[in-house]
Amino acid sequence: MDGFIAVALGVSALAGIIALLLLPGFIAFRRQNPYKWIIGIVGVTSPLFLGASWLIAIIWAAWPSNRSLIDPIVGNPTGSDQNAGDSIGNVVSRFTTVSGGPKLEKRLAEIDSLHLRGMISDSEKDTLRSRAIEG
Fold first, then answer.
1. Which H or E run contains 58?
2. Which DSSP string corresponds to 73-127?
3. Phi, psi of 75 (to 5 degrees)
4. Could you give the C-alpha distances from 2 to 14, 89, 115, in angstroms and in order?
5. Domain chopping of the chain, boundaries
6. What is the pLDDT of residues 89-116, one digit of tens each?
7. At 99, phi and psi to the nearest 5?
8. Please, which of 46, 68, 112, 124 could form a disulfide with 53 given CB 3.0 to 4.6 Å?
9. Percent with pLDDT over 90 in the chain
10. Which are the contacts of 125, defined by CB distance < 8 A and separation ≥ 6?
């Protein structure tokens, strides 16, 4: 009977370990993360790297897809429906001015390009255009 309990505990522990290794991939697939396969592979192979990569994989899988890890660094701690490019652009815009002429035309063309590529919504496009025109 003692042997049976030991085997049952061993099988349970092994099942738990496998479940933990698969957890980052499961989260990434459920959240439809664009890097779901990479996250899954990193999570499963984490014992090869002493588990440090599992922690990276679980954070990567759970991190909101509309935010970047750099957002809090560049002054966008909540993400607020912006990505890292938007956040970095906001920081850069504090140090540059657009006051008409070729610079304004170039900025408006960049905004239109972002909108055509689907990187910003209609309301974001309108907001950015009005900000650029106001200077």
1. helix 52-62
2. TTT-TT-TT--HHHHHHHHHHTT----SHHHHHHHHHHHHHHHHTTSS-HHHHHH
3. 95, 20
4. 18, 65, 67
5. 2-62, 97-134
6. 655 555 555 455 667 888 888 888 888 8
7. -125, 55
8. 46
9. 0
10. 111, 112, 114, 115
